[in-house]
Sequence to fold (450 residues):
Amino acid sequence: MNRVHIKTYGCQMNERDSEAVAAMLRARGYRIVGAEEECDIMLLNTCSVRDAAEQKAIGKAANISARKKKQPDFILGILGCMAQNRGTELLDRLPDVDLIVGTQKFHQVPDYLDNLRAARAAGVPVGETIVDIAEEAGSQNTIREHVLEEKQVGAFVSIQQGCNMDCSFCIVPKTRGDERSRPMDEIVRECEQLAERGVREITLLGQIVTSYGRRDYTHTGGVSPFVQLIERVHAIPGIARIRFTSPHPRGFKQDLVEAYGRLPKLCPYVHLPLQSGSDRILRAMNRPYTRERYREIVDALRTVVPDMYFSTDVIVGFPGETEEDFAQTRELFEACNYDMAYVFKYSIRTGTPAADMGDQVPEETKEARNQTLLNLLKANSERRNALLLGTVEEVLVDGPDQTGKKFTGRTRGNRVCVFDAHPRLIGSLVPLRIERVSVSTLYGSLVVKD
Fold:
């Protein structure tokens, strides 16, 4: 009765939260299993960014509930953003759920499971579902434990939780709470410990990661707390690469732009959410920048690193988006030369200001605009990758690919590579000559040094 399977929906923040929960449960004596049919306890760590994500998790939970009829002691828990967003309302559709835990209470999961298992072992009838979605001061500091696989090369490190931006389309401020940062010394210590365990690449995570520490630390010599943190992680022996996600355009001040030129471990890959290329729509979204300012940031970064790689988020079909608005988005999308993009059709999220806006865009129009941007992205990715044919790229070797016959790694620009290698090279930076490309993958051979 101690085998736990955690299924994660949504973003890298959710993946990191699930990993921390798994580490806490292992420390308490639970076994984390990869196959859901082998578990006694199923935890669904959920996403609320779009209604479809919630419905997917609800459908999964409903299917699992049927298992409880055959296994009365089976435990089903719902964690994370949907738990925070819906709370006890979930019980109207999922009365058999045993545990509902919000985004500031992940660290309580081991205690709650201990209590549920003890009650079952003692034959005590289980009462009402445990629901805990309360806010908790300091909860951002509890996401610090890691479960590392053998020879794991990369790790996520949570540095900041919550968001104060209040974009009109977004449910995150409700599900994640106000902006809260972890102490810098604790983050650096966590990164040092990961390096000692063989991790070579750190990805710093936050809802608005570039806002890190702005209320807790002072700017020093024009350098923001976030850049100060990057500098300290950069100084850790063993760490070869640093990435971060997800930032906000307003966080790209001159100090962060210049950091790409002076900190070689900071990879030349930026995820820079656009959302719309229309100033009118950006104002309706409550996004505090213009298309001109956004383009200035892109140009500034490419001035420092000419071959900078970019990814972005775009929403098509926001309420009131006209053909002219979309044309402006398409124009800026093409001009920024993205390597990767997450293009979303706007969907109503109850509880957000945009949900009550009129002039909703027809679904077929959203679909057409979505496909237009995806086609542009595919063509651009193919062109960008084709330029790498014959070049030699630095690749960090992650490990075997899914077939087990070859190895995978990533370039500094975050491109996935497939190649032949020896297991001893896992965690090493190697030169790879690119010989073949697809839309999303590079294929090549290691360059043998004389």
Remarks:
- The first strand starts at residue 3 and ends at 8.
- DSSP finds 14 helices and 19 strands in the chain.
- Residues 3-132 form a domain with the Rossmann fold fold (CATH 3.40.50.12160).
